[in-house]
Structure formats: structure tokens, C-alpha cells
């Protein structure tokens, strides 16, 4: 699903990604963690083609990101993205937020798109909210709409960038539950999160970044119980 080697990126003088190599197999779940500013968002945005990189090879769902507009469009068709801030269209209903892209970008008949949208909204337990506007929903509900909207693509890989960190604590679990169900259904995913319970239950691999490089990559039991580096130990101490 994702194959990356020797990825390097700079913001001016700042070397934000240092020789990053990462692979994600079909059905695999990776949790990406690390201190603030370590490059997690930049990395996940590179995978979705939202950020260019300077060196390295990156192939997503069979398409090599070579800087062409065609590759970008292809990758975005196969990779769904969910951000910390929900990025919903405020003037559209929940249902319209889901169907807009399918109808206008993919040319799907409106009735079919609406049928799929209703199915996905049931899956994220929002069947009773379809005609509301984002402003009428709680943060947890909005994030579940954002997840359902990303799923409208039928993405081969889902990318989550701190999907629960803007939520009130009592709403975190309703979003994590939906993500866990997706994972159990076999969805390939890369999730930037500091939710350790989620990482333990769901991740095949925990990848720890610090200062632009991957410092450790290990199954959750190994990573949390026996981190190999002082940097990871310090980080785990801070988030637990
Ligand atoms: P993380 O998601 O791990 O907190 P980011 O990928 O957002 O880290 O940022 C990594 C580093 O790159 C930080 O030092 C941040 O300040 C810097 N950075 C992020 N985006 C930009 C940008 N558009 N221009 C310049 N520097 C940036
Ligand atoms: Mg970030």
C-alpha cells in the first residue's frame, strides 16, 4: 500500500524528514508517534501528496509520486485522509458533505452516492444526523462524519493525523471505536496518535519519530514494554 525509501525534505534550512523509510502492507495498521515537531504530519501529508519532498522514492497504492499531477490525482483517489480539525463544508449537510466529492469529482449518480453515504453514516452511527449541518454536531460526531466522508472514496489506505486530539475527552472513545471497527474490517491505515490504548489494541507496528527520523519501529508490546532507545523511553514516560 505504501512503499517509501530515503525520503528527505527540508523547510528552508530545517531538515524535517531525514532518510525516512517505511512500508505498509495491505491490511496492516501502523501507529506513528513522536514528540511535537518531529515530522509526523509532514510525513503523512507526503504520503497523500499534500506536501512535496526533495529526495527519495514514494509509491502509494501502486502509483509512484513523481511530482506529476496525474500521480497526485491517482494517489488521492486511493488514500483517504482525516485531519485533527475536521475540515467539513459548514454550509452543506452531513449527507451532502459525503456525496459532494462522489457526485462532482467522480461523476457518480446522486442516488447511488446517497445510498453509499447512508450506509457509511450507519457504520459511524450517525444515521439520525444526516440532514444536520456540521455546526449542529459535537466534535466527536463531526470527526465521524469526516471519517465517513473519507470512506466514500473506498480508499485502499486511510491516513489519520491526530484525529482525536482536538476532541473533548469524553468524545475520544466514540471516534476511536469507529477506527477500531475499520481496522477489524481489514482497512489498511497509518494513524498519527498518542492514544496508547488504541496503539496496543490495533497497531501491528508502532513507529516512533524524533527530529525528522524514524528512531524505532516495533510491535506495540515491544515498543511500550521494552523500548530500545532512551529517546523512546522518555517519550513513553511523557505520554503515559
Ligand atoms: P509533528 O506533526 O510531528 O508535530 P510537523 O510535521 O507538523 O511535526 O512539523 C515538523 C517540523 O517542521 C516542525 O519543526 C515544524 O515547525 C516545521 N514545519 C511544519 N510545517 C512547516 C511549514 N509549512 N513551513 C516551515 N516549517 C514547517
Ligand atoms: Mg502534527
Radius of gyration equals 18 Å
Helix amount: 25-40%
What would you call the structural class? Answer: alpha/beta
- Beta-strand segment tally: 10
Globally, the shape reads: globular
* Mean pLDDT across every amino acid position: 96
Distinct small-molecule ligands in the complex: adenosine-5'-diphosphate, magnesium ion
Q: Note poorly predicted spans.
A: none
Order of helices and strands, N to C?
EEEHEEHEHHHEHEHEEHH
Q: How much of the residues is beta strand, in percent?
A: 25-35%
The number of helical segments is 9
Strand order, biggest sheet?
Answer: 6-7-8-3-9-10
Instruction: Give the biggest beta sheet.
Output: 6 strands, mixed
InterPro entries: AAA+_ATPase (IPR003593), ABC_ATPase_HisP-typ (IPR030679), ABC_transporter-like_ATP-bd (IPR003439), ABC_transporter-like_CS (IPR017871), MetN_ABC_transporter-like (IPR050086), P-loop_NTPase (IPR027417)
Protein name: Amino acid ABC transporter ATP-binding protein
Subcellular location: Cell membrane
Membrane topology: Peripheral membrane protein
Description:
The structure is a single chain. By secondary structure, the chain is α/β, with parallel strands linked by helices. It has helices spanning 40-47, 69-78, 94-104, 110-123, 139-151, 169-184, 196-202, 220-225, 230-239; strands at 2-11, 14-24, 29-33, 55-60, 63-64, 79-82, 157-161, 188-192, 205-210, 213-218. The strands form two sheets. The chain has a six-stranded mixed β-sheet, sandwiched between helices. A four-stranded antiparallel β-sheet has the order 2-1-4-5, with helices on one face. The longest helix is centred in the C-terminal third of the chain and has 16 residues, at 169-184. The chain starts with a strand and ends with a helix. The mean pLDDT is 96. It binds adenosine-5'-diphosphate and magnesium ion. Adenosine-5'-diphosphate binds at residues 11, 14, 16, 34, 36-42. Adenosine-5'-diphosphate is lined by residues 11, 14, 16, 34, 36-42.
Amino acid at each position: 500500500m505504501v512503499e517509501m525509501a530515503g525520503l528527505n525534505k527540508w523547510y528552508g534550512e530545517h531538515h524535517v524528514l531525514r532518510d525516512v523509510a517505511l512500508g505498509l502492507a495491505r491490511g496492516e495498521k501502523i501507529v506513528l508517534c513522536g514528540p511535537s515537531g518531529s515530522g509526523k504530519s509532514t510525513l503523512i501529508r507526503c504520503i497523500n501528496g499534500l506536501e512535496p519532498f526533495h529526495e527519495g522514492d514514494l509509491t502509494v497504492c501502486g502509483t509512484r509520486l513523481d511530482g506529476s499531477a496525474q500521480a497526485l490525482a491517482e494517489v488521492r483517489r486511493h488514500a483517504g485522509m482525516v485531519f485533527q480539525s475536521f475540515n467539513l463544508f459548514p454550509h452543506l449537510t452531513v449527507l451532502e458533505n459525503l456525496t459532494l466529492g462522489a457526485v462532482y469529482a467522480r461523476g457518480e449518480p446522486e442516488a447511488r452516492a446517497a445510498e453509499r453515504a447512508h450506509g457509511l453514516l450507519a457504520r459511524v452511527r450517525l444515521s439520525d444526523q444526516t440532514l444536520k449541518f456540521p455546526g449542529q454536531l459535537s466534535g466527536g460526531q463531526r470527526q465521524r462524519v469526516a471519517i465517513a466522508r473519507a470512506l466514500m472514496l473506498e480508499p485502499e489506505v486511510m491516513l489519520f493525523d491526530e484525529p482525536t486530539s482536538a476532541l473533548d475527552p469524553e468524545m475520544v472513545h466514540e471516534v476511536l471505536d469507529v477506527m477500531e471497527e475499520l481496522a477489524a474490517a481489514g482497512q489498511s491505515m497509518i494513524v498519527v496518535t498518542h492514544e496508547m490504548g488504541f496503539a496496543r489494541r490495533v497497531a501491528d507496528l508502532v513507529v516512533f519519530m524524533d527530529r525528522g527520523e524514524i528512531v524505532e519501529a516495533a510491535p506495540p508490546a515491544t515498543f511500550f514494554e521494552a523500548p530500545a532507545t532512551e529517546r523512546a523511553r522518555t517519550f513513553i514516560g511523557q505520554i503515559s
